[in-house]
Structure formats: structure tokens, C-alpha cells
Design brief:
alpha+beta, 219 residues, four-stranded antiparallel sheet, five-stranded antiparallel sheet, single chain
Length: 219
């Protein structure tokens, strides 16, 4: 018997809905004049370091995915506006990379320069709000994929997918989305998706998620 996961998914939505848009936009406004616009295409990869210098990326429009380099697993996805690189400046720059998820506008500047601008312009409140949101997203993600059943993990990923921009949802199958973000086998994923679809709890067309209709806490 599975735990009641309705509040579990409600909490998931509240995290994204509390994204500090105003504070992130303030950071981008101050950092943009010193950043360089990148020419990017869908599925391009961005490295957190170049010539031993760590980078800070400003996501002006579109969405990107954060991957673990060792196995390519998707750890997170984020839509504009957002600032990448400040919260990871003390980690190994070769551990993670960013991949363009849809047509996006991205600019880059050195992390050290971003730190100097934040200090000079007294943007500590905006930075704190960004870091709190980032830490909460990471904690929320880890808490909901650890020690859960396969069914619950898949249900969580279904709601995550439904929250993605429409262009993203329409260009990736549910099975691929879940496989890229979990260690579940394709057969397990397909079996549970088939059960949810047969029960009318989700709507899919050619493997693309279209609707979610109150997924039950057990099956």
C-alpha cells in the first residue's frame, strides 16, 4: 500500500510557485551589462568552467537542464529567469553541465566578476533569495526521489513534466523524461504508465504527456 501522496505533490507545486522572480530579475539586471550573450542551439552544452575560470550563466529566456557529467543524469531543470553558477562555485566545475532544453537566450560572465558586482551593488538580499530557492529545489528533489516506491517516483516525475514549458513537454516522451532523471528501468516505467493511462489518470499521445487527472495514491 502506498502512502497518500496528494499533499506530497501539492508541496512540489508550492516550491516552484515561490520562485523569487523579482529578486532574480534584479540580479540579472545588474549582471547583464558585464555579461556576454551566447549563441546557443537546442541540446548545446555549457560548461561551468573555461580556461580554469568558473562561469556564471544568466538565463534570460527559455529553459535548460542541469546534468551530472559522469552519467548524464538530469538533476534539475529551470526556466527563465535564473542565474546559474553562483551556488555551485565551490564545487568541482567538471561535475555538472548545463544543456539547452529549448530555444533560449543565455549570457555568461566570470563568477568572480559576478561576486564583485553583487558586493559593490549590495545585492545580498537578492542573492540570498536565489540561494534559498535553489537549496529548497535541491532538497525537495532529493527528498522525493529517495526511499520512495517506483510508483511514487514516477508520479512525482509526471507532475514535474507537466510543470515544464509546453514546447518541452511536446518534444519528449514521458518514458524518456523519467529515465533521464531516475534509475528506474524502462520496463518498470512503461508498466506503470500503461496502468495509469488505462485507468484514465493520465492522457498520452504517442508517448507525450497531455493531461493528468488526479493520480491515485495507490494502484
Amino acid at each position: 500500500m502506498h502512502r497518500d501522496i496528494k499533499p506530497f505533490f501539492t508541496d512540489n507545486y508550492s516550491v516552484r510557485d515561490k520562485k523569487p522572480l523579482k529578486e532574480i530579475e534584479i540580479l540579472i539586471e545588474h549582471l547583464s551589462p558585464d555579461s556576454k550573450i551566447l549563441q546557443t542551439n537546442v541540446r548545446d552544452s555549457l560548461s561551468y568552467s573555461a580556461d580554469k575560470e568558473k562561469n556564471c550563466f544568466l538565463l534570460h529566456s527559455g529553459s535548460v537542464m542541469l546534468h551530472r557529467k559522469v552519467d548524464g543524469m538530469v538533476l534539475n531543470s529551470e526556466s527563465a529567469p535564473y542565474v546559474f553558477g553562483i551556488s555551485t562555485q565551490y564545487t568541482d566545475p567538471d561535475y555538472l553541465f548545463i544543456r539547452i532544453h529549448e530555444h533560449s537566450q543565455v549570457s555568461v560572465l566570470p563568477v568572480e566578476q559576478a561576486n564583485q558586482i553583487i558586493s559593490a551593488c549590495n545585492l545580498w538580499r537578492s542573492l540570498a533569495q536565489l540561494l534559498i530557492y535553489t537549496a529548497t529545489r535541491v532538497y525537495d528533489h532529493c527528498a522525493k526521489i529517495c526511499a520512495l516506491s517506483s510508483y511514487e517516483i514516477i508520479c512525482y516525475q509526471l507532475y514535474e513534466l507537466m510543470y515544464e514549458p509546453e514546447d518541452v513537454r511536446n518534444n519528449i516522451t514521458v518514458a524518456s523524461y523519467v529515465m533521464n532523471r531516475t534509475f528506474l528501468s524502462r520496463s518498470t516505467i512503461m508498466k506503470i504508465l500503461a496502468q495509469l493511462k488505462a485507468g484514465g489518470y493520465i492522457g498520452m499521445e504517442k508517448g507525450i504527456l497531455k493531461t493528468i487527472n488526479r493520480i491515485p495514491s495507490r494502484y
